[in-house]
């Protein structure tokens, strides 16, 4: 069992509550005003960026896009964190749950100087400010959210619900990192966010960093009040305490007459108190106290659209839902609206913030921490800068001995688990396995020989609470959203990992996968964003072996969802056995900037390829299994049997076995596909085959019976451009399932060996009526197999005990059980 220790750096030192001077308070306020001015300018202005002349209609953008309501709260918090970071030299990352407050974070990074360092055309002068304003939500410019283009971002926040999950993922194994995570009160109503408050039960206070949740209560969503802003404070306090936090409350009332300077003084004192408490927790942890503390969090209540126009057209704006997006949605349409906008902008007194050249005054930016302490320049927010290659064992050492095709039985994920155990041992601080309570269920439990599941909640006894520890490399919580968010945050900050889940329920994170894939796609075209480790899925307990759980657990459609994304990002692998799974996963763990989806059944299954053969097969991505076919060298086959997926592979081989014996003159080619994207055209996907290669393998004129793991229409979608597409007949899952036996499941979906033989007979012109007897026997075999399951509750012996026969060069069988369809009565003969 490995353990990890860490010492607490001086960065976690306590400073006491600062008694800020009037000058310091003024600096904070001037920085905040500058950030708010730059934010409003991004939403509205096309020209005249510093209001050096009266505002004209042509100075305003024709299309006004963006979100103002949350922005002033985000900039306020950023200003105060800057002050604390500078004083404490505390490495800090800023995660903005309401990522639609994009203008605020762009403004902050501009004031930091990092924006101009990253984008040299956005200079620190009036022309640079004009360009900064114009590009925001403008064709050819930048998005309105805290997108990958924004320095310091690891969380776009365009889709709400994942701020805390990402924040905790960033904190794991970063013991000296503070992650300030702003949670919008609208976001707090989402299921994933409500669940993610429990992340504090999975933090080791010595070896992990600290997440400081800041619940930003500004009261409204797009058009409605928010739940948490409309409950009594004591009820909200009880909720946060119930989640295991110690809440601190800060409020600025909508009708407050308090000066901004006094507001800054109050919040600075509260923030120092919170950070000192965190420092005390880290000090106790460094001394060996790893018990779960009540981590502090802040409830930050301010008016929606704070510092904006109080009313527009006589209607309340600040402090209402009307401030959410663009309060003056038609600033060019009337003189009054134009005057309202100009008054709003001038309320920040830009003449006090910028010099004659348009550069932000030194006393304003003096609040900015130095170098990499700037939140917009923290290396953790550009994880590829910190990424180290995994120290991987030789996967060949874990190979299953396969003396002949089908000559061994193994559970592929269990074999992979042994390999991952060594990966964990060699990478004790930058590799984790995530799963929704399914690591052992998916047969990866060998990793518990090396590590435990991280757990900081209550323990009962070692007899009951197996493999739980304060520090561990396995992260399990029964929320796909949570573990996906943790993994994403972990990867985005420069580490490695994988997520294992049941195939049917990985759909729960469809939208999260969308966002991550989009992030990767965008960052591929941002030169300063360094590549990060791939997001690796291992989907087991798949559709064809969910016969015990039934129809609700039978859905292979995540693959369809994945292949909708850009080809440069997604990879889908269907290894047919354990050795191909080992080769595939070693490749996935070495890769960068991909989403790798690997589907592998966990039940005992025949093994077909030696490790050398598996490596060659995975390198090609697909290939002819000549030992399984009956085509003669130098001749075209009569039919192609193709398979993608472990269960379809078994059924195709069993069908080939029947055809070999029943129709010995039929020339059958067997192709196995492990890299699904090889089926696409090379112009559509980097892994795609050229037309020439595809035609050589699959032919252009012969029938192709394709047994596929998932929904069969995906095969047609991937191959629709191919010359022989009209010859492809795909079989797969077609939403037929129940609680039944494994073979009955494939029969329900017409993927079984008998139906595949019928497909061959129906589609090979030379067979026709001369194979009518065999076709009838196949139909009868299906009937008998179905009846057997209804009588005995298990699959018919000829299916249950089938193995691939050892066939010599002459095509004669050397061993293996015999198949006699005509003699099989469905009785007890085995």
Automatic annotation (TrEMBL):
Keywords: Lyase, Thiamine pyrophosphate. CDD domains: TPP_PK (cd02011). It comes from the Bacteria. Residues 20-385 form the Xylulose 5-phosphate/Fructose 6-phosphate phosphoketolase N-terminal domain. Its EC number is 4.1.2.-. PROSITE patterns: PHOSPHOKETOLASE_1 (PS60002), PHOSPHOKETOLASE_2 (PS60003). One of its GO terms (biological process) is carbohydrate metabolic process. Residues 807-830 are annotated as: Disordered. Its cofactor is thiamine diphosphate. The keyword Lyase applies. NCBIfam families: PRK05261.1-2, PRK05261.1-4, PRK05261.1-6. PANTHER family: PHOSPHOKETOLASE-RELATED. This is Probable phosphoketolase. It comes from Xylanimonas oleitrophica.
């Amino acid at each position: 069992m490995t353990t990890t220790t860490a010492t607490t750096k001086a960065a976690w030192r306590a400073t006491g509550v600062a008694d800020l001077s009037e000058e310091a308070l003024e600096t904070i306020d001037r920085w905040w005003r500058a950030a708010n001015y730059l934010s409003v300018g991004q939403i509205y202005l096309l020209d005249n960026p510093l209001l050096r002349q009266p505002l004209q209609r042509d100075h305003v953008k024709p299309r006004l896009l963006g979100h103002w309501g949350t922005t002033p709260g985000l900039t306020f918090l950023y200003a105060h964190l800057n002050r604390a970071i500078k004083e404490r030299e505390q490495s800090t990352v800023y995660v903005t749950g309401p990522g639609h407050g994009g203008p605020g974070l762009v403004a902050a990074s501009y004031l930091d100087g990092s924006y101009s360092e990253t984008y040299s055309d956005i200079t620190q002068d009036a022309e640079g400010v004009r360009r900064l304003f114009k590009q925001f939500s403008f064709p050819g410019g930048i998005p309105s959210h805290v997108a990958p283009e924004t320095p310091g971002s690891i969380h776009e926040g365009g889709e709400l619900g994942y701020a805390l999950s990402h924040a905790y993922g960033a904190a794991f194994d970063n013991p000296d990192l503070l992650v300030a995570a702003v949670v919008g009160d609208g976001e707090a109503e989402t299921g994933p966010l409500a669940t993610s408050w429990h992340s504090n039960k999975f933090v080791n206070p010595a070896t992990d960093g600290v997440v400081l949740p800041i619940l930003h209560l500004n009261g409204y969503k797009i058009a409605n009040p928010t739940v948490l802003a409309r409950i009594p404070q004591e009820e909200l306090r009880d909720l946060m305490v119930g989640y295991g936090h110690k809440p601190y409350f800060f409020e600025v009332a909508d009708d407050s007459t308090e000066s901004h300077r006094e507001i800054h003084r109050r919040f600075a004192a509260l923030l120092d108190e919170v950070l000192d408490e965190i420092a005390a927790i880290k000090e106790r942890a460094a001394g060996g106290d790893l018990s779960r503390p009540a981590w502090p969090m802040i409830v930050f209540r301010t008016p929606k659209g704070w510092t904006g126009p109080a009313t527009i057209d006589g209607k309340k704006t600040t402090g209402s839902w009307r401030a959410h997006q663009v309060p003056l949605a038609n600033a060019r349409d009337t003189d009054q609206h134009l005057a309202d906008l100009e008054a709003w902008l001038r309320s920040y007194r830009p003449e006090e913030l910028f010099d004659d050249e348009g550069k932000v005054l030194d006393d304003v930016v003096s609040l900015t921490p130095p170098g990499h302490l700037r939140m917009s320049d923290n290396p953790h927010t550009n994880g590829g800068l910190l990424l180290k290659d995994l120290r991987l064992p030789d996967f060949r050492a874990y190979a299953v001995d396969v003396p002949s095709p089908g000559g061994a039985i193994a559970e592929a994920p269990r074999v992979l688990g042994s390999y991952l155990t060594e990966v964990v041992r060699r990478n004790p601080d930058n590799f984790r396995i995530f799963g929704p309570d399914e690591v052992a269920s998916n047969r990866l439990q060998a990793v518990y020989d090396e590590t435990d599941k991280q757990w900081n909640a209550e323990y009962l006894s070692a007899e009951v609470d197996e493999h739980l520890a304060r520090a561990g490399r396995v992260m399990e919580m029964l929320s796909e959203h949570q573990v996906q968010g943790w993994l994403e945050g972990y990867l985005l900050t420069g580490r490695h990992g994988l997520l294992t889940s049941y195939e049917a329920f990985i759909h729960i994170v469809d939208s999260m996968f969308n966002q991550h894939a989009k992030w990767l796609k965008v960052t591929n075209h941002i030169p300063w964003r360094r590549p990060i480790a791939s997001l690796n899925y291992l989907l087991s307990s798949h559709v064809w072996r969910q016969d015990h759980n039934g129809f609700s657990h039978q859905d292979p459609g995540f693959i369809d969802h994945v292949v909708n994304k850009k080809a440069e990002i997604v990879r889908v692998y269907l290894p047919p056995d354990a050795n191909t799974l080992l080769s595939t996963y070693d490749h996935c763990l070495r890769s960068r900037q991909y989403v790798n989806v690997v589907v592998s059944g966990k039940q005992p299954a025949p093994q077909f390829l030696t490790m050398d053969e598996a490596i060659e097969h995975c390198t090609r991505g697909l290939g002819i299994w000549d030992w399984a076919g009956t085509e003669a060298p130098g001749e075209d086959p009569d039919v192609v049997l193709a398979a993608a997926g472990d269960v379809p592979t078994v059924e195709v081989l069993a069908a080939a076995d029947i055809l070999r014996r029943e129709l010995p003159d039929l020339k059958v080619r067997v192709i196995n596909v492990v890299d699904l994207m090889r089926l696409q055209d090379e112009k559509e996907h980097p892994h795609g085959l050229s037309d020439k290669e595809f035609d050589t393998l699959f032919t252009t004129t012969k029938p192709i019976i394709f047994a596929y793991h998932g929904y069969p229409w995906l095969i047609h979608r991937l191959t629709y451009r191919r010359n022989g597409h009209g010859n492809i007949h795909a079989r797969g899952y077609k939403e037929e399932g129940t609680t039944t036996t494994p073979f009955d499941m494939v029969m329900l979906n017409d993927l079984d060996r008998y139906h595949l033989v019928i497909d061959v007979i129906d589609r090979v012109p030379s067979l026709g009526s001369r194979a009518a007897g065999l076709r009838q026997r196949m139909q009868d075999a299906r009937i008998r197999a179905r009846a057997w399951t209804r009588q005995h509750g298990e699959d018919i012996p000829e299916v249950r005990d089938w193995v691939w026969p050892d066939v010599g060069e002459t095509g004669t069988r050397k061993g293996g059980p015999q198949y006699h369809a005509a003699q099989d009565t469905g009785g007890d003969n085995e």
